[in-house]
Predict the structure of ABC transporter ATP-binding protein.
Amino acid sequence: MSILTTKHLGKVYEGKVPYTALNDINFSIEKGEFVAIMGPSGSGKSTLLNVISTIDHPTSGSVCIDSEDPHEMNDDQLAHFRRNTLGFVFQDFNLVHTLTVGENIMLPLTLEGVPVPEIKKRTAEVAALLGIEPLLSKRTFEISGGQAQRTAVARAVVTNPSLLLADEPTGNLDSKATKDVMELFRMLNETKNSTILMVTHDSFVASYCKRVLIIKDGQLYQEIVSDGNRRTFQQEIVDAMSLLGGEPHDLI
Ligand SMILES: Nc1ncnc2c1ncn2[C@@H]1O[C@H](COP(=O)(O)OP(=O)(O)OP(=O)(O)O)[C@@H](O)[C@H]1O
């Protein structure tokens, strides 16, 4: 079953000189897939994720998520769709600093008006699954970056979204926390069959995925599918990226 399909997706930024950031992007993601989007700096990765996540609007083509086009919804429908069908994980965690870790995780359920006993049950379940029970009563300034991202992942999955979207989720983490967070995504993908789409610069991070889509100059350029061996997959990704002549940080 297809969770995400883009058809002839395009994005032109208007300005003195209009700029085509995305041009005729066509791809699908099936239920339970774990996919990375890579590409040189300025190739359109964030634009693509923003258009899929409804943060921005496409100027042509369509996005279909769970059989619906969110760009055709009114504001109320869209708010509900974003809270229930999509989960977001950002580079800078985006936690609410006036709330505890537990309250951050509960937030999407609170906003949806889920009954309190159900909120408590689901928060406890996700905290146990992600190993953050001891953190629940802590404030956000009392936890590490890796723990903050774990909390953000918990908040993103507590609603059981159809599609989990992540923009450079390890961009602010050291190598140990990066590995921890990637193991978490892998666990969610393997045990909960979560469908995950992430943007990353990092070939190590991308090697946890099962498929990598490389974009160049706003167009789909190449697709690499994992053979199941993370090391050889990472090497394939590095080779493909180096052919693009990306910045050194694109090849890490
Ligand atoms: N709001 C905007 N207005 C005009 N041009 C934009 C805007 N946002 C992005 N662009 C341009 O669109 C292109 C794609 O940008 P985008 O941020 O999607 O690239 P990226 O692949 O995510 O880059 P990076 O890896 O550096 O984050 C770039 O050339 C950028 O300058």
Summary: The two ends are 33 Å apart (CA to CA). The CA atoms of residues 170 and 178 lie 5 Å apart. The longest helix spans residues 175-191.
